Amino acid sequence: MRWDNLSDHPTAATGDTVLFGTDAVTTRTFDTPEFRGITFHEVRARSIVNRVPGASRMPFEWTVNPYRGCTHACVYCFARKTHGYLDLDTGLGFDSQIVVKINAPELLRKQLASPRWHGAHIAMGTNVDCYQRAEGRYQLMPGIISALRDHANPFSILTKGTLILRDLDLLLQAAEVTDVGISVSVGFTDRELWRTVEPGTPAPERRLDVVRTLTDHGIGCGVLMAPVIPFLGDHPDQLRATVRAIAASGATSVTPLVLHLRPGAREWFMAWLNRHHPHLVRRYERLYADGAYAPKWYQRRITRQVHELADEFGMGPARRGAARRITEPPALPERRTEAETAPTQLTLL
């Protein structure tokens, strides 16, 4: 694989170009049930705050991604192509060859303190999940959240991982001093569909328990209903069941997002579709004939249906720019230092 050709364009915030080099890689495997078959490549990154390309559809400009590759193994994951930059396989390799930026917390703290950094919002979980199983071992997020809290830097987290509840105390502390946005991804509640397309993730109801817990502690949590999978998860009854469960969890909003199939993810997903639902292959080829995104008419139909259901169940869509900040939190749990807080690896099922 190639490590030394990874580079980003220089940014005013970091000034660095090379992300890491061959002299900074340690490869490990762990013979434990939850990590069997997974290889971890530990690297010392040179930059951790990344600028989102201007052509991106993302509504944020800066991201922090402590991991590359993801044990969630979602067959549709758009980030699969990024593994190709390392000459790693974008299929099984993406699911089992995990790059860990072990110095992410200290590097972030240094970059936040730089006079060139002006406190812009930082989004996490936008490429691969920062609360995937690897986080249970490497425990990078407590240090990352602590750095953001100490600099009162606004941030948001998108996750499918229940492990985020381990860091509840830190999230509560951060929300006292800055804007903290949390979203949980739940595209459907169909358990059979979940087991086949998201085999390494916690069950949808477990993720909705996370929403409920965060909400009970005063942290408003939205749900990204993503992806809505054409012909497999878009039946009106499925949409209704999912939105009903999201509403019951106390989510502040629901935002539907139809499956998109970028290069790298498209090939892996279509191979999976051909094995499990061969009768749908031609329909997908027609629906996605013009590129990575489903036609506008289809996206609008799904969005309208979900928003109508959200209204029916007393919810609303996400409001652009809406702050999810605690103003009058309930009694806080007793605060503990990071050294006193033992990490907990939550079960997936």
Shape: globular
Radius of gyration of CA atoms, rounded to a whole number = 20 Å
Helix content: 25-40%
Main beta sheet: strand number and arrangement? 7 strands, mixed
| Secondary-structure content class | alpha/beta
Widest beta sheet: strand line-up? 3-4-7-8-9-10-11
Order of helices and strands: EEEEEHHEHEHHEHEHHEHEHHH
Percent strand equals 5-15%
What's the helix count? Answer: 12
Distance between the termini: 33 Å
Mean pLDDT: 85
Low-confidence stretches: 3-19, 319-349
Number of E strands: 11
Task: Summarize the model shown.
With about 350 residues, this protein is α/β, with parallel strands linked by helices.
Describe this structure in words.
This protein has 349 residues and is of the alpha/beta class. The protein is 32% helix and 14% strand. The chain has helices at 81-84, 92-96, 104-112, 134-138, 141-150, 168-175, 191-197, 204-216, 236-248, 265-276, 281-287, 296-312, and strands spanning 25-29, 39-43, 49-51, 62-64, 67-68, 97-101, 122-124, 155-159, 180-185, 221-228, 254-258. Strands 3-4-7-8-9-10-11 form a seven-stranded mixed β-sheet. Strand 8, helix 6 and strand 9 (180-185) form a beta-alpha-beta unit. Helix 9 crosses helix 12. The longest helix is centred in the last third of the chain and has 17 residues, at 296-312. It is globular. The model is unreliable at 3-19 and 319-349 (pLDDT under 50).
What's the layout of helices and strands?
Blueprint: E1 25-29, E2 39-43, E3 49-51, E4 62-64, E5 67-68, H1 81-84, H2 92-96, E6 97-101, H3 104-112, E7 122-124, H4 134-138, H5 141-150, E8 155-159, H6 168-175, E9 180-185, H7 191-197, H8 204-216, E10 221-228, H9 236-248, E11 254-258, H10 265-276, H11 281-287, H12 296-312
Parallel strand pairs: 2-6, 4-7, 7-8, 8-9, 9-10, 10-11
Antiparallel strand pairs: 1-2, 3-4, 5-6
Helix pairs in contact: 3-5, 5-6, 9-12
